[in-house]
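Notebook entry, structure prediction.
Reason for the run: the old model in the group folder had no record of what sequence produced it. Starting over properly, with the input documented here first.
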Amino acid sequence: MTQTNVLRVERNPALIRSQVLENLRQAILDRRLAPGQRLIERELVELTGVSRTSVREALRELAAEGLVTAIPNKGMVVTSVSPEEARQLYQVRSALEALAGRLFVAHATAAQRRALVRALERVERQAAKGGPILAAKDDFYDVLFEGGGNEALRAVVGGLHARVSMLRSLSTSVPGRLEHSVKELRAIVDAVQASDAEAAAAACARHVEEAGRVALLALAEQNAG
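New structure, fully documented this time:
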């Protein structure tokens, strides 16, 4: 499938803005629009088939999410995450997700615990098919953070989501990472089912730390190339 076909937006006035935003966001997360790539409005209008106003609104939203950056005398470019920025993001994620695991054990209902198991099963099914698992992992984390019952934590994590997603797409593309990622999520669920808050916190932190290690190696290789 060509990039033109992937980015093309269907003609539905009520959905055009959200479709443009979602198509461009996904192209960035899939790295079809590469870090550092200049985003020229005229070209995006041609690719999506929508108005310049719709494209401009989508780019503003992506800038607010941190996925694109305005560069003086150059315009909008896809945001590049440096190794140091990535290291700091993973440090923060590790602490936040460890807290999420601890809070989930302390506060989640029986229904939320079952929902976490079902979310893991969806990740496992997707991984077994060899397909992308980020959407399924998003569902897993939605359950995890909701079950913890801490809205402030969810808000902070939500603010990091877009930039973290760029790194997650990079780390999961590394050969072998997918299988390890699923095992790490299984360890989180096992700790939850044992009602072991500290083990859940440790498993959440370990999952992030391993993802960070792989992402930093991939970034270093990408920069060297």
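Summary: The chain has two domains: 3-78, 83-224.
The old model has been moved to the deprecated folder.
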